[in-house]
Design a protein that fits this description.
The complex is a heterodimer of chains A (391) and B (159).
Chain A (H helix, E strand, L loop, with lengths): L6 H4 L2 H4 L5 H10 L5 E2 L11 H12 L12 H15 L9 E4 L1 H13 L5 E6 L5 H7 L3 E6 L10 H7 L4 E6 L12 H13 L3 E5 L24 E6 L12 E4 L2 H14 L5 H10 L3 H25 L12 E2 L10 H12 L1 E2 L1 E2 L11 E4 L4 H17 L1
Parallel strand pairs in A: 1-10, 3-4, 3-5, 5-6, 6-7
Antiparallel strand pairs in A: 2-8, 7-8, 9-12, 11-12
Helix pairs in contact in A: 4-11, 5-11, 6-10, 12-14
Chain B lengths: L2 H8 L5 H8 L3 H13 L12 H4 L4 E9 L6 H10 L4 E6 L6 E7 L2 H12 L5 E8 L5 E2 L2 E2 L14
Antiparallel strand pairs in B: 1-3, 1-4, 2-3, 5-6
Helix pairs in contact in B: 2-3
The chains are: A alpha/beta (391), B alpha+beta (159).
Bound molecules: pyridoxal-5'-phosphate (PLP).
The site of pyridoxal-5'-phosphate (PLP) has 13 residues of chain A, from α6.
Chain lengths: 391, 159
């Protein structure tokens, strides 16, 4: 027994290389406090529309308690094919090119594992959603973060991509409209990135989970651009626009070879997404515009309110055009993002997420979510103004 | 519907300053537009939504179905206008179906409402019949639940 190793030494080494999530640390502090007003929430404050909840109750009553096909209910895949065709101009065959996953979270994992060999580099812009780097590491790939900056309104530029691309680069992982910055791509940006990918013959994994929540102009999916379909895995889901985070349902669309590869992993790790959630998602696609419109107009009003309030308190923030996040700059306070967030929490009981939780290039920023009630936002901005005035 | 009206319908107490920030327009413009809505008669008033059940008020409310014969000239409007004049009538709607007018009537007690129906309403020329339902409890009024249900708590911080 004296040869035995300690437990931590027995953990997989690629796992050990992944740091603890910055958000989790922060979550523990916030959870220990009362009366916190939170702008730190990455999910809608709305409940899923009632007809969707009702459809899942009805499905349960009818005995929908079984597995579904690995790819997911065919009628749901058919509805998705129609929806992404109509809304994003994408063409995917429901029988072979669409896979229903347990949220975009699982779909991201499938997409990365389907294409990543050990040592392959996968590029992604930063700041970005917290799971991108770790998922690449779990797949034994090399995460290559491409910093984006407020000067470019956090849009990914071709110049920045050219700087980081290497012979080992396999794919680009993209998320616009973006969590945490609220940035969106213009059609010209999308074209530029597509040209880069085609010229370097790279794959694209595009996480367009906030696609419906684009305020200034309709969202342009990069997957719809000429020459992109054959190199793209398009990811989308119901969590954000339909306020269905707890249902855990998303999907991946890709040419059959890629879908088959993702399917191999999905069938053994997950088998299928929960049937009740799939039934709910099917209902969500019946009248999507009506479900989304009222939530979207509430987000827009809150965004305007929040941004105008930042302006009044002298906090500079670029105008987010998508998702439900604002990403104000706090460098002028002389505090780091983490210090700012911790002090704001301790002194004024307002929670926001330090930008560094989304990668080092988030330093100097905090993420404020406006997926929370206007009443809460009103109190939060009063407290923030008081905090800033005192600094 | 205009966003400004939607905001006011949701919360008539929302300040002009806040509305201006939400719609990215000036405070003056908000005030002008509200004044215009009031002047045009599009905004007819502002009221609090009160949960009267909690106040344990003495009064009763009745929902009354009324069948009428429309008049040659004025159709349903003249008779509805007449009924509207009674202060005990809170609301009145023309509806499709088995009856024509739907009334919400308040009184201090059952007898008072019964008196209104038999002596005032039923005697109006053109009123052919009524059915009175006394309201027992209000669950939802103007889109607002009278008892707030406990909502499911979300994580305070999430990615
Ligand atoms: C950019 C992005 N991708 C994926 C997810 C995960 O979504 P899902 O609930 O579909 O797993 C989120 C959730 O916050 C997100 O912001």
């Amino acid at each position: 027994m004296n040869d035995s190793k300690s437990l931590p030494d027995r953990l997989a080494s690629n796992l050990q290389a992944v740091p603890r999530s910055g958000i989790r640390d922060f979550f523990e502090v916030v959870s220990s406090m009362d009366d916190v007003i939170s702008l730190g929430i990455g999910e809608p404050d709305f409940d899923a529309p009632w007809h969707i909840r009702e459809a899942s109750i009805f499905a349960l009553e009818r005995g929908a308690t079984s597995y579904t096909s690995n790819l997911g209910l065919l009628k749901l895949r058919q509805a998705i094919a129609k929806y992404v065709g109509r809304v994003f101009g994408l063409r995917y065959a429901p029988e072979t090119e669409i896979l229903i996953a347990v949220g975009v979270s699982e779909a991201l994992d499938l997409a990365i594992r389907a294409v990543c060999n050990p040592g392959d580099e996968i590029m992604y812009h930063e700041p970005c959603y917290v799971s991108y780097g770790p998922l690449i590491q779990f797949a034994h790939g090399v995460p290559v973060a491409v910093p984006t900056s407020v000067e470019n309104e956090f849009r990914l530029t071709r110049a920045a991509l050219e700087e980081r691309v290497s012979p080992k680069t396999k794919a680009l992982l993209l998320n616009y409209p973006n969590n945490p910055t609220g940035a969106a791509l213009t059609p010209a940006d999308a074209r530029e990135i597509a040209d880069f990918l085609i010229e370097h013959d790279l794959l694209l994994i595009t996480d367009e989970i906030y696609g419906e929540l684009s305020y200034e102009r309709p969202h342009q999916s990069i997957a719809a651009l000429p020459g992109m379909r054959e190199r793209t895995i398009f990811l989308h889901g119901f969590s954000k626009a339909w306020a269905m985070t707890g249902y855990r349902v998303g999907y991946a669309c890709a040419p059959q070879v890629l879908t088959d590869a993702m399917m191999k992993i999905h069938q053994y790790t997950m088998l299928c997404a929960p049937i009740l959630s799939q039934e709910a998602a099917l209902e969500a696609l019946k009248e999507p515009e009506e479900d989304i419109a009222s939530m979207k107009s509430a987000y827009l009003q809150r965004r305007n309110f929040l941004l105008n309030s930042f302006k009044e308190m002298g906090l500079s923030c670029f105008m987010p055009t998508g998702a439900f996040y604002a990403f104000p700059e706090i460098t002028q306070t002389g505090l780091t993002a983490k210090e700012f967030a911790l002090r704001l929490l301790e002194e004024e009981k307002v929670a926001c997420v330090p930008g560094t939780a989304f990668g080092p290039s988030g330093e100097g920023f905090v993420r404020c979510s406006y997926a929370t009630s206007l009443d809460a936002i009103k109190i939060a901005v009063e407290r923030m103004a008081r905090f800033l005035a005192r600094l | 519907m205009d966003e400004l009206l939607k905001i006011l319908k949701n919360n008539a107490l929302e300040s002009a300053e806040n509305i201006a920030k939400m719609l990215n327009i000036s405070v003056d413009e908000v005030r002008e537009r509200i004044a215009a809505y009031e002047k045009e008669g599009i905004i007819r008033g502002y009221q609090a939504i009160v949960n009267e059940d909690v106040l344990k008020m003495q009064g009763v409310t009745a929902v009354i179905e009324v069948r009428v014969s429309p008049e040659r000239e004025g159709g349903f409007n003249d008779i509805a206008d007449r009924i509207s004049m009674f202060p005990e009538v809170q609301s009145i709607y023309l509806v499709s179906g088995d009856f024509d007018l739907l009334l919400f009537v308040v009184g201090n007690d059952l007898r008072e409402v019964a008196f209104f129906v038999s002596e005032k309403l039923a005697t109006i020329d053109g009123v052919n019949g009524t059915a009175t339902h006394f309201m027992l409890k209000t669950y939802k009024h103007h889109g607002v639940l009278m008892e707030s249900q406990e909502s499911y708590e979300r994580l305070k911080v999430s990615p």
